[in-house]
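Dear all,

This email documents one entry for the complex benchmark we are building for the journal club exercise. For each entry we list the sequence lines for every component of the assembly. Then comes the predicted three-dimensional structure of the complex as a token string, followed by one or two observations. Please use this as the template for your own entries, and keep the labels exactly as they appear.
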Amino acid sequence: MPDSTIVVRNLSKTYGSGERAVHALDHVNLAIPSGTVFGLLGPNGAGKTTLIKALTGITDITEGDAAVAGFDIRQDPMEVKARIGWVAAEVILDDDFTARENLWLQAKLQRLTEWESRADDLLRYFSLLDRADDKVSHFSTGMRKKLEIALALLHQPSVIFMDEPTIGLDVSTRRMLWGIITSIHKEFGVTVLLTTHYIEEADALCDRIAIIDRGKILAEGTPSELKARVHADVVQLEVSVPVDPAALSAIPGVQEVHAQGNDWMIRVASSEAFLPLLLATYPAASVRRISVEKPSLETVFLDITGRRLGEDEPIRDVRRFYAQMRRTRQ
Amino acid sequence: MKPSWSALWGLYAREILRTFRNPFVLLITVVQPFMWLAFFGSSFSLLPAAELQELFGASNYIQFLLPGVLSTSMLTVGMFGSMSTIQDKRFGFMKRILITPTSKGTVFVTKALGSATRGLVQFPIMIAAALAFGVRFNLLWWEWGVWVLALMLLATGFCSLFLAITASSTDWQTPGVVSNFITMPLMFSSAALFGSSHFPAWMRAISSVNPITFSALLGRSFVLGTTTDWAYLGYLALFAGAMLAIGYFVSSRWLKVE
């Protein structure tokens, strides 16, 4: 196990006090290994951005402690800031400046004396060298994002914080950015902590993921480890003939059966093994609709929280089903 | 926290470059005092020269008014500095700065000095405008320098004051509200527009501690060729120093990031 670049111990952040207190972070514990892309996955308001603000010294913390790149965020905030880069959800550049001038300002803020060759290397790496002396107000969103990442890398940080880096981007720009995040992590050996509420993004980019909701870390592991928590597929079935739940439950591999309107939600160990047995029980002509949901980070999130990511109200039946399954297991 | 000269220079240069790359800001900075000179300065143009001499100690009211208008316009400069800070907070740039090893105090100092420097852009243009209105200058080279220094101190003081008051605000309207609240009393209780000898006693008392008065009287002594009271320069230095210290203290603790 490599050393941890970020260590968070019992960290809490509370806004307000008394009855109106909002616990944005509630005793968070994390150890983020060096050289990994670590994802914080959670819905809006889960505490992801607050955690990044706390670790970058933008907001103070109520309780606990944390270290970034070997420095305590409370005792040595400036040492931490000299070793971190930051990519915001919205692109934040000085539009009146050229790309090179933005890098110059970043170099000044990071107290760098030798920065020109590094800046040229980064501009070349991000295919921006021929536009280095153009004002960034004339850049496309993708180019602006690339420049923002170049700014974050200029001082050779140990860690880059990316707060919802692809929010609001079109699909192709998002894919391009995924490629960049993967490659900078490999090429520059930097640890990346990114927050996202896009499940496919966390799955595609992250070596490890922490699921955060309402200020608490609910689960943490590699995407495979998290998916392995849900040891089941979910089959949703609608048939035109009466269904005997006992008969369904008797099919080998079925873990749980639950009626939901005209549908039946069936939790099975393996949908591949179950479906032939199901079709042997119910003639194909009687099956109106059938769908299979394999374990995914979405189902992990549902399994843990009883809610789909991005939806706060537990309205949909499928979520009730998952919540009920969870309660049954407890 | 040790100051970062590198960040100080970077952010100061940013303030200046942004001004010169934004023609609208430049235009507003220059047009307002020019309008004062053109409209207010012309209000006594039909007054006989003898009466002007008796009232203002000058045969041309614009000659009397110019140092005062330059001084009062440093108040507006403070408002612009404050608005630029709020813009940085709202657009996330403040966060970008403060995620680097740059202190809030450094941000404050660069904003105050940058805004004050921006205010001095008005100086050569106003001098040129005054020449066009018939004002003649017989200043020694070092008197020009001291006049600019006085204006720089005044602007630094007012910019610091505005930044301290609006440190915890992210509302676009706050600088305007603050400006409305302090501009009028400071301007009219100073010797910027009229000599304070005709003021009632209570207004004279305010005028005698008003930094705009110090700057206006110092500049006026150079323009009109009268005796210079060098204590005014000391008062202005004290004002700028005190406001910088207060602003630094307030910003270091309460400057909002977003």
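Observations: Chain A touches chain B at residues 56-59, 78-79, 81-82, 84, 86, 88, 90, 92, 94, 96-97, 101, 104-112 (CB under 8 Å). The mean pLDDT of chain A is 88.
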